[in-house]
Amino acid sequence: WEKEAVFLVESLRTFGGRLAQQPVTLLTIKGKPLGTKSMKRLDELRVSCPEFEIDAESLNFPLAVVAHGAAAAERHSPAQTDCLVWLLPDTLILREPSAFRLPAGSQLGFRPVHHQNIGSGYTQAPDAFWQKIYQHCDVPQDHIFPMQTCYRELVRPYFNAGMLAARPADQLLGHWLDAFQRTFQHPDFLPFFKIRKYAIFMHQAILAGVILKNFSPDHLVELPENYNYPLHMHNRYPEQARVGSLEQLVTVRYEKASLLPKLLKEIQISPARSEWFKERKLLK
Q1: Hey, where are the domains in the chain?
Q2: Is the separation of the CB atoms in 222 and 142 below 8 Å?
Q3: Beta partners for 84?
Q4: Distance of CA 42 to CAs 14, 23, 74, 276, Å?
Q5: What's the CA gap between 215 and 209, in Å, rounded?
Q6: DSSP state of 102
Q7: In this predicted model, what pLDDT tens digit does every residue of 261-277 receive, in sequence order?
Q8: pTM for the complete prediction?
Q9: Which CATH number fits domain 2-279: 3.90.550, 3.30.910, 2.60.120, 1.20.1550?
């Protein structure tokens, strides 16, 4: 993820508008240092790169590192930080992300998952997996509400773990890690992991449970659809919501840098942004 992380910070510094110079922290796993070239560039971009520790069991569990990294980001945020934006490295900032500034009274900005996958369909009773999630996270029934995925599927709340705007004072990301550590090896969940997608998205399911436990719906803000837009799903995106140009988007996801040259050919791009991608050999 080194290359993606550098692209993320470079995009923020270039296109972030009034937020372009905000402090950035890149969390790295202890004992897995970044390459010299990446460290030099991140230093030029004024990025701090603290390490965090992760136990062997978590390191070997699919995407557990996401919950560990998010909690570390929260721990490393300065005491006066009002809002912390957690982003996975395969994110690009294309315009000023002003919606990350949460309105007063709101505790969390989020985007729904791209598609339902293991999510709980709202019109059906929760399956055994989600019953266990709600039980282990002590989710109040009146905190559950209908949410649409990006693909327009109606589900119980299921938040994308790759982009969150949270208030560090709430310690939500730390609570997420605590809940994940209590549950990912719990006998109640092990049978589900025989189907691999339940292991892969366990971190995201636990995130949903922790958010629903800690916040009522009126404290949550669904960020606009042009945030966290999945470029790697652009051609499969619902036609009524599919954008025609990169200029319409604020932040995008793309999975990995090697996919970008192909993905960028599938959407219109302005000359200014085209030049930025060309400088990074992502567009011819």
Answers
A1: 2-279
A2: no
A3: 166
A4: 14, 12, 20, 17
A5: 10
A6: P
A7: 999 999 999 998 999 99
A8: 0.96
A9: 3.90.550
